[in-house]
Amino acid sequence: MALRARALYDFRSENPGEISLREHEVLSLCSEQDIEGWLEGVNSRGDRGLFPASYVQVIRAPAAEPPPPARYANLPAGGFEPLPPPAAFKPAAQQPPPAAAPEPFPLPPAAGFPFPPAPYSGSYQPSQGSDDDWDDDWDDSSTVADEPGALGSSYPDYEAAGSGASGRYRLSTRSELSLGSRGGHPVGHPHPPGTGGGGGAKSSATVSRNLNRFSTFVKSGGEAFVLGEASGFVKDGDKLCVVLGPRGPEWQENPYPFQCSIEDPTKQTKFKGMKSYIAYKLVPSHTGQQVHRRYKHFDWLYGRLAEKFPVISVPHLPEKQATGRFEEDFISKRRKGLAWWMDHMCSHPVLAQCDAFQHFLTCPSTDEKAWKQGKRKAEKDEMVGANFFLTISVPTGTGADLDLQEVESQVDGFKAFTKKMDESALQLNHTANEFARKQVTGFKKEYQKVGHSFKCLSQAFELDQQAFSAGLNQAIAFTAEAYYAIGDLFADQPRQDLDAVMDLLVLYQGHLANFPDIIHVQKGALTKVKESKRHVEEGKMELQKAEGIQERCNIISFATLAEINHFHKIRVRDFKSQMQHFLQQQILFFQKVIQKLEEALHKYDSV
């Protein structure tokens, strides 16, 4: 007999591979074994896919039901009151529980108890290549990332919240889970739909949580913030201000702008020459003090910033390379890529003032103790995840309110823009790369073939010993040399113009890869607002609670629009400058070609 299950609650699929459920719907199960809290089956409409195991109850024949285990013999006949679905739980820390963690509520599935939510991790893990592994003398094993939380328990995070323990990124929420007695509801959470909680209608509905705990909206802390679960003390130095500019919301400009040059990459060694690496000299304009940083230091900084700022596009670093790390061409190309990266970091009003970035720029290279202290301070930053959004200050008062439909339209327009720009940037990068390859190999070879042909002709004419033909022979030989030189000019030209264009395109392809996640966070917030409005219209939610959700959504919308405006502003600046440079170099190149041809032409005047 095929396994069947009955849906306890409505579920709307949000990702490929999932299927939607309707309350009381009967489904066919492919297997009774769940995979990290998800089951696979076919709904009444014939769609096959995954759905939360806690949202359904397996239908069993009465005779086939096994007796309850002996250790539950003393439970009340009616069982415990069902817990809310996993989406109603909010982990108290962002650290994932151990893989073999036991269930804190080991009740049999037949009693209708849901499975605990699947663990997730939203932390950025910086890539570590063979050329940039962390050295033992650069850091020790007592970093914050290695401190699991000092619990000594393998229970999931929400169990730890009830026992008073604190994790690395534990948030103090307004609806802390209280698990004082097994089977009772967490304090502050209503009964799940269909269980007939004791409160009135308006207190029985809450905005649902995303079942996909791996989505960017969840991992970034956006969901927790929108639902009002983030609280913390924001210092004045941590505040990020969004202001209304002529183009809409903008990040408040850095009152002390600066630039930073990256120069003189040098090969250095340690461990008596056993370890080699490249160090880059950084000279920030606001300090004038040079420091030396390795690529691994850039990589660490990028990881911290990408984790801290979920609605800001942190520029991508140049890619690593497993071999040829000490070749001159690779070192030069990486330095140029890092220079573009540094320019975008210094130009961003928020990133440029970040404490971790300032520590990276100003900490003396020789003071290892000060570097480690600043590194640990950055890693202990509490204003990450949901708490990051608390640091954002947005305009208030008349004219400062955002129209949700207009915001959604602007974001959708920008989404279409980024898709088209990504496609065109990829095409231009491919075309420029192919054209540069032809200049370096094909064009040089063809011009030198022409030059070689002219040289052969002049050598043939030299067999004529007549004095009046000597001038012609010399002019043709000079023409041959001119074509050889023109071939060399073609081979060298991509370094002057096309390479810089391609470096800029690669940098912007990194930005364009960031924006889908940024847009996903904003879209997720808008979805929660729409859901809360629907609950208010149905009389299931208080207006004040829905307004709080919309207010927090506005903060995310202001930040997203500010980042979009900054992207457009910096894009216009960069592409204007780069296209001017490209055309200027093209003009200089063809002027050099014309000069070579004119010099050859003048040789025939005296023949």
TrEMBL record:
Membrane-topology annotation of the record: Peripheral membrane protein
Keywords recorded for this protein, A-Z: Cell cycle, Cell division, Cytoplasmic vesicle, Endocytosis, Membrane, Mitosis, Protein transport, SH3 domain, Transport
Residue numbers spanned by region Disordered: 83-205
Name this protein carries in UniProt: SNX18 protein
Residues in PX domain copies: 258-368
GO biological process entries: cleavage furrow formation; endocytosis; endosomal transport; mitotic cell cycle; plasma membrane tubulation; protein transport
Residue positions binding a 1,2-diacyl-sn-glycero-3-phospho-(1D-myo-inositol-4,5-bisphosphate): 294, 296, 334
Organismal lineage: Eukaryota, Metazoa, Chordata, Craniata, Vertebrata
Composition bias type Acidic residues, residue spans: 130-140
Family label: Belongs to the sorting nexin family.
Chief location of this protein within or outside the cell: membrane
Gene, per the UniProt record: Snx18
Entries under SMART domains matching the protein: PX, SH3
Location(s) in or outside the cell: Cytoplasmic vesicle membrane
Domain SH3 stretches: 1-61
Pro residues bias spans: 83-119
Gene3D superfamilies per UniProt: Arfaptin homology (AH) domain/BAR domain, Phox-like domain, SH3 Domains
